[in-house]
Amino acid sequence: MTLLQIENLAIDLTRGAQTHRLVSDASWQLDAGQTLAVVGESGSGKSLTALAVMGLLADELTPAAGHILFDGKDLLTATDDELRQLRGPQIAMVFQEPMTSLNPVKTIGYQLTEGMRHHLGFSAKQAKARALDLLEQVGISDAKRRLKQYPHHFSGGMRQRVMIAIALACKPRLILADEPTTALDVTIQAQILSLLSRLCSEQGVGLVLITHNLGIVARHARRVVVMYAGSVVEAADARQLYRAPKHPYTHGLLSSVPRMDTRKGSKLLPIQGAPPDPFDVLRGCRFNPRCQHATDKCLTDKPLIDHMAVHAVACWNQLDTPLDHTLNRPISNNASGETRNP
Amino acid sequence: MGIYLIRRLFGAVLVMLAVATLVFFMLRIVPGDPIAAMLADAGGPEEVAILKQKMGLDQPLVVQYFKWISNMFQGDLGSSIYGSRQPVTQILLEALPRTMSLAFISFVIALVIGIPAGIISAMRRNTPTDTAVSMFAFLGLSMPDFWLGILLIIVFAANLQWLPAIGYVPMSEGLWAWFSHLILPSIAVGTAFSAIIARMIRSSLLEVLRADYMRTAASKGLPVKALMLNHAFPNAMIPVITVIGIAFALLISGAVVVENVFAIKGLGRVLINGILNRDYPVVQGAVLVVSAFFVFSNLLVDVLYGVIDPRIRLS
Question: pTM of this prediction?
Fold first, then answer.
């Protein structure tokens, strides 16, 4: 059953009299209890999309087109009150910066229980009992003492565990995790991600994992959506996407991630150039200035994507060869012109 | 916390002692002395010598100093060198309630106007309401308090005759009598501070509202009131507390000026008359009291910090 469906979402930035489209035509969907990864580099619009779902976009940002259907109800037409009812008990969010995402002057216990008391009508005692339980679930020992402490007593990893506990507090059906591990030490990134992923699947919570790191989501997400410059460029099942990315951008992303099994001596291939300035008007495919496979058509016509397809791609020149991860290049494609190391 | 407080109190005493010392010697450096002020041109050298001896001014400065300090620790600040030779403690005790009343009511006015004004203008940023508050704050800051006092007297006392123009009535003679005499001077003193506080709260709140933890709180689906009161306000108050603490001490000095406009015989009057007459003990005593205000309101601010902000709570 579809839990969240985003259809042709566009988000505009209004600055003075000018309007810029930061997200255009974003579409993806998530079934209840499933995990979806939304991947893209900074500025690709993945975080904005998540904030739009929460109804927490900054004042100067407005959803300009499309629909966000949660359980069949369009969140873009919902009132503030209706959205407040959803936030917490239906949709929760884990943010990128655990160091600044907790209120420094409130105890962990307060921040963990206030949602339950407000939405679920828990008494202080009930809320505290559940808070203790939640802290244990996220792997924080000595929970009783921890509840009385303040955020500054916690390390970054611990704070992110607390954020996960807060997100789970009101038993939501969907958690949006916006780069939940980016700000953490590499050593605990995997721990936190596994924890989040495990708790969500155990409790039947749908999870949208937003990240710029294709590598880390491989294990956790069944389906992956790749965003570039405000649009979805490719969406496929994780295995399929990793094995045979069809969009040159996805291909580039995968080739720039170091892997344990990369053959010694083969180079990581960075994607040349930078994402387009959202304020520039660019015709055709927005990836074309950086694309090695760009043709004349790419400069003039915007490639469309069939969101219903199992493996959806927005590209005129889709790659059709599987990726050899050990060499960071397509298995039989020598057209790229990169020198091959012995 | 206990040890910390004791340490701070000890420090406060040291600061006041330093102030006392400084004032003592500075007064002696100032040209003119009490004898000259008293006798004007009337007495000859003999009378001067007699008076000096009578007041202990013929002794070496260091002796005078230690005598004053040791008396001070016994609660004796000396006596005025004029007229009935009233004890300084008695003069101060008479003046203090007036200045304190004035400062307290000014403080309350500053908070009652400043805090809501700041919150409203932060929440309605860039609306006509916000602009109106900013205009008011600008005006309030720009007006000298004594001038505002004179305006208030002209409008509310002389023309409308709603409130008494000058003087002070102790609380024992009726709450309203006491209060009505203080309204105009308190507005004169408090307006500038309400403007400072409103501006501080506005900018502090605007910064807090952009913070990540406010987004987290909003993501919990809490009502706006809970967001503002439980999450934004305590954080926004941290920098404001500093200003309020300093403001409270400054209110005392503001009161000193405004007291003269409203003919309230408070600390300001005592201080100014004392300085004009070179009445050493009175000036020394009055400055000591004012410095105590500064020192203790700072101490209070530091303790309040710990209450509001757990990060600097003292173990």
Answer: 0.79
